Amino acid sequence: MINIRKLESELWESADLLRASSKLTSNQYCMPVLGLIFLRYAYSRFKKVESEILKGRPSRGGRVMPVEASDFTAKSALYLPKEAQYDYLLNLPENLSVAGIKNKEGHSINSLGEVVNNAMLLIEEQSEQLKGVLPKSYDEFSDAILSELLRIFNNSAIDEIGGDIIGRIYEYFLNKFAKNIASDDGVFFTPKSLVKMIVNIIEPSTGILLDPACGSGGMFIQSGDFVNQTGMNANNSMTFYGQEKVAYNAQLCLMNMAVHGLTGVIKSGDEANTFYHDAHNLNGECDYVMANPPFNVDKVKAESCESAKRLPFGMTGVNKKTKEVSNANYLWISYFYSYLNEHGRAGFVMASSATDSQGKDKDIRENLVKTGHVDVMISVGNNFFYTKSLPCSLWFFNKGKSEDLLNKVLFIDARNYYTVVDRTLNEWSEWQLKNMNAIVWLYRGEIDKYKELIDKYHTALNSDKPFAECLQELSDKLKALREEAKKAVEEAKKAEAEAKDKKVKYEGKKPKVIQEEYDANIAELTDIITIAKEANWLYEKFGEGVYADIDGLCKIATLEEIEAKNWSLTPGAYVGVAEVEDDGVNFKERMVEIHQELNTLQDESNDLMSQINANLKELGLDE
Q1: How far apart are CA 151 and CA 13, in angstroms?
Q2: What is the Cα–Cα distance from 92 to 82, expressed in whole angstroms?
Q3: What are the DSSP calls for 398-443, one per residue?
Q4: N or C end of the chain: which has fewer CB within 10 A?
């Protein structure tokens, strides 16, 4: 996360450069900058795949056969011609007019902007779905600006960041320069950890995947990665369909998919407004539906929704006067269910309020629960969204549930389970994602997957000892290492001071260097302790793989129990509250102590202010 924060900071600087040096608005210069990020990220992936291809490459006469576009297609990756590779753009001569460079039509190129435009055109030739999508307005910028931007984006952080980087950076721009767009109609970029949780629980493998509110395509990217990691080729086994009302977002989605080597059919504009159109005619046809739709949208035309059908449980509440839906959350929920085929699975993000909303929403929810296809419900805490602090829920449907789970729902309350990134952002770490996934595996009876995770923990910790014992040993080791570091630094400081007093050269390591070396070791050990904590967290609850309802965390509820809760799908209504360990502190006595401490601090503050005023008066500055 440090790397992407650094990258974002540099992006801000680059955007400032564009803003100061051009007459373009934020929306106009956002896409060209994202285009350069696209080039850089595409090049990073190109080099990675190229090295994989070359590993087993045959040779003739001692010469390795050159890579071709078809080699990249076979690996679901985007091929980049030489003139579209980032290092080629970085290393161009300053005086392009005399360099003899020509574009793909054979015409002479005289500016860096023309070179970048040509690179975009060459890439579009490699991908049918990118034709006419990539930005090609770089000739509007000076060579100096473009050269500086290329330098700024030549950042190793891009090599290290996976997932929906285009969408994440896009959201960054919207947040900085167009906040009214970033939060318009409840549209929020889907954080990577939420996307991964949805994909991990849905487990896509083969068939049709639809995201009817696809934005920048994060669901497709993560699903593609998931399928590829199982040894299959995502493009061969999956068909990706997307709808996105905002053409600008659809453009980003196509760029994002292309850089990850994925192909799909993405529709945008009025025909892709999911409230009114099933743009791909996929009602009842999808194996998987994933989405992060805009929350709490109002003023949706009720008659147009009813004409578009996809409402298996009836219409949600409608304002009789305006004939509009005042909150479209249950339109989305109904659509997602309706798109599924007889064994389809759906996973989506939804406003927390939808799990317990009343009126027509409650009637729809009751009928939905009675199908037996509601599978898993997860409550997510605040600060997961990049631009908003609102909580949300993850909903999962499964029309292919096993008979023994047909009338049961797994509720998980994860509002207090997360990793703090910074003051305004939380996420689930990779191990936390695995742990929550493990709860779902046990609910489904997939004990082998749970045991594989336990084995992965032992491997990561390089120990077969019980996790609690391992955690204690590591914690003791960390404490000893910190004490050792403190002592070593103090001794080095003392030796350095003695050398200075004796006016001789200090021959030892500088205290700062010693501290840095220890800090690196401490950081590495801290990371291992984090893994041990997560391993212990999971094992303490489920041992060798026996599901149990855990107060404050998870509960398998029957339809009868849900009916008794008035058809609520709020996890907190079922899992209850975890017991708080007695720390031996008398609450009443402690509150009296705190009150006394505050009074003492207030008295000290008043005395200090009086002294300051007296000093100011003596100096004649009390007016």
Answers
A1: 12
A2: 12
A3: ETT--GGGTTEEEEEE-TT--EEEETTEEE--HHHHHHHHHHHHHH
A4: C
- Strand partners of residue 394: 349, 378
| Amino acid in position 367 | N
Nearest alpha carbon to residue 77 among 228, 258, 264: 258
Q: What's the mean pLDDT in 432-456? A: 97
Distance CA 86, CA 103 (A): 16
Q: Residue 140: helix, strand or coil by DSSP?
A: helix
Tens-digit pLDDT profile for residues 346-369: 999 999 999 999 999 999 999 999
**Distances 355 to 358, 377, 576, 618 between C-alpha atoms, Å:** 9, 9, 16, 66
pTM (whole model) above 0.90: no
Nearest to 344 by CA among 370, 306, 371: 371
CA gap 488, 506 in Å, rounded? 15
Span 515-546, pLDDT tens digits: 999 999 999 999 999 999 999 999 999 999 99
Query: Residue 325: helix, strand or coil by DSSP?
Result: strand
CA 244/CA 263 separation, integer angstroms: 16
Average pLDDT, the chain: 87
- Signed CA dihedral, 178, 179, 180, 183: sign only: positive
Q: Which two tokens stand for residue 355?
A: 């799990």
Sign of torsion over alpha carbons 330, 334, 339, 340: positive
Order of all β-strands in the sheet with 318-319 = 300-301, 324-325, 318-319
| Residue (of 546, 435, 543) closest to 200 by Cα position | 435
